[in-house]
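Structure request: GNAT family N-acetyltransferase, Nocardioides lentus.
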Amino acid sequence: MLTMREGLHVLGSDDLEDFLALTNRDPVVNCFADYRARTTRLDPRWLGGEVWGRYAEGRLRAACHLGANLVPIEASDEDARAFAERAVRRPRSVSTLVGPRAAVAAFWEVASQTWSPPRDERWNQPHLELTGEPLVEPDPLVRRTTKADMDVLYPAAVAMYTEEVGVSPERGGSSALYRARVTQLVNRGWSFARIDDGRVVFKAEVACVSPAAAQIQGVYVPEDRRGEGLATRGMAAVARLVVPALAPGLSLYVNDWNEPARRAYEACGFTQTATFATLMF
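Returned structure:
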C-alpha cells in the first residue's frame, strides 16, 4: 500500500497487511517474523517489544523485530544500518541478534561501536528447508509428547539448550519460566520425541508456524546415542507429523560446524536456501 510515510517508524496493527506483504517476499526465511505478526497483530502489548518499518517512496521496504530477539526482515545493508543507528540510542535489551547473514553483519557494523561484544558469534548458519517427502523412512517411535512425558522431556530440553546456547536455561532461577515454555509447546502439539525405557533419545520442537513453513528448533539426541540415525529418521517422522497438519514445509538453521547434524538433515532431504548469522549476548 502506498502511504505518505518516509523513513523509520514503529509499526502497529494498521500496518499488518503491509508487513505481511513484506515477509511474503521470502516467506520461509521470514517464518518467525510472519508468525509474530499474525499472533500479535504488531501490537506492542503482545509483542513484548516493537517492530520497526523503514519506508521509501511511501512503501514499506524493510522491517526489524525488536524483542528478546532482534531480527532484520528483508533488510538491505542500508536498511540494517539505519535500524542499528536507531537501536543504539537506547540501552541494549535484546539477548540475540539473528537473521540473514548480510543484514546481521551490516547491523553489527554500526551497533558494535556502542553495544558490548557478544558472548558468542555464529556467522555461518545454513538455513535449510524441506518441502517434499523426506528421503528416508520415518522413525515410527517418534510421536507428539504429552504432559505425562514432562519428567523425562524437561531434562532433555535443558541438556539440549545448554549444549546449543552455552548456558543453562535455568540460570538465575529461570527454571520455572523454561519449564512453562516446554509445557506450552507440549500443549500446542508442537513437541515431538522418541522415548526409550523412560529416556528421550530424540526430540525436536516447532518454534513457530506461518502459512509457508513450520520452523523447527531444539533437535537433540543424547551424546551416547549419536551416530545411529536417530536424528535423520526422527526428523522424517517430524515432517510426517507436521506436514501438512501445521504447514506445507519445514525450515531450520544449523551451525556450520555441526557436521553430524548437517549430514542428518541432508539425508532427510533438507536443502540450503539461505545463510543466517546469530550473535548472542
